Amino acid sequence: RLHLYRNRLTNVPGNHELSILTSLTNCRLLEKVCLSKNLLNGILPASVRNLTATLLKLQLSFNLIEGTIPLALANLTKLIALDLSSNKIKGLIPPNIGQMHSLQQPFLDNNALEGPIPLSIYQLVHMYVFYIGHNMLIGSISSSINNLTSLQWLDLSSNNLKSTLPPGICELKDLLDLYLQDNSFTSHLPLNLRNLATTDIIDISANKLSGELPTSLSKLQMLEYLNLSRNTFDGHIPEQLDHMLNLDTIDLSHDKLSGHIPKSLEKLQHILVLDLSFSLLEVEIPSGGKFTNLSAESFLGNYALCGAPKFHVPVCSDGAKKHNNVNMPRVDIASGGFALVLIVVAKYRKRGLEKHDQEVERFCGIPFQ
């Protein structure tokens, strides 16, 4: 093992390639190389192909590495973990990455990678972590994603991905965290979304999705965090969401949802954030359950709502109150106002980063705290 994690290592002055990797080609018994969180710059050399065939884990995250990922990297066919995240790497994900058939944990996020997701990546059937968020990738998610049956953590957020969400993504029965936010996905939510029975985080915010919210969302009973905000969903909020008893965050803000806020949502006992702001909701805001903790920010921009004075909306007429028993607009946050929304949303988006840090610390032999 070579663990030089969290130092101030730099490249050899005047050398454009990452010379430390070339020097390691003489170390024939290496299994783990951890050089994360240094000041290493330069490009990944083609000589990376000559690293020992026993190498299982290569950690180079949080450096200043530039250039592209060399095709020769795919020669490391026994590599289990590859972490190139949080560098300045550009260009394409190598089209031959599927040759790395042992790869379980590719972390390529927070770089400047371009082009489509290569089709060969869907051949990595042992992969259980796939982080390529915060790049400049284009194109679509292949229907072949259903080959990745071991996948538990998937982050494709903050790219330029388009097209519809393939139904195959909902066939990943072991998926725990799904981050697809800040792309340009279109059309409706997949009808088989209910299959993600073990998933506890779904963030598909800031896309171009439309249509009504399916009642099958209520089948996601392990879900803790649901963010569908900043799309163009319309129709009513499904009453059946009250079946999702583990939810502590629902963000449906900045959509085009209409109608009433279901009174059934009062049954959600763990809700911290229920953000229904800037939609087309109307009639009375429910007053029971966790709604007693919500603040006015939860309902901003819904000009046809009425309810308690603390929500900064008009007092309801008797007619509006009768409608409350049918279905009602939505809400936004629990105890603490708009600041709490930001805190809770940040917590879940940070959780993916923490998962990454845990893997870095574990690979580098340092207890995670």
Architecture overview:
- It comes from Nymphaea colorata.
- It is found in: Cell membrane.
- It holds the Pfam family LRR_1.
- This is Leucine-rich repeat-containing N-terminal plant-type domain-containing protein.
- Keywords: Cell membrane, Glycoprotein, Leucine-rich repeat, Membrane, Repeat, Signal, Transmembrane, Transmembrane helix.
- By secondary structure, the protein is α/β, with parallel strands linked by helices.
- It has a single domain (79-363), classed as Ribonuclease Inhibitor (Leucine-rich repeat, LRR (right-handed beta-alpha superhelix)), CATH 3.80.10.10.
- Helix content is 10%, strand content 20%.
- The protein has helices at residues 19-23, 318-323, 338-363; strands at 2-3, 32-34, 41-43, 57-59, 64-66, 81-83, 90-92, 105-107, 112-115, 129-131, 136-139, 153-155, 160-161, 177-179, 186-187, 201-203, 208-212, 225-227, 232-234, 249-251, 258-259, 273-275, 280-284, 304-306.
- Strands 10-12-14-16-18-20-22 form a seven-stranded parallel beta sheet, with helices on one face. A five-stranded parallel beta sheet has the order 1-2-4-6-8, with helices on one face. The chain has a four-stranded parallel beta sheet with strand order 7-9-11-13, with no helix packed on it.
- Strand 1 (2-3), helix 1 (19-23) and strand 2 form a beta-alpha-beta unit.
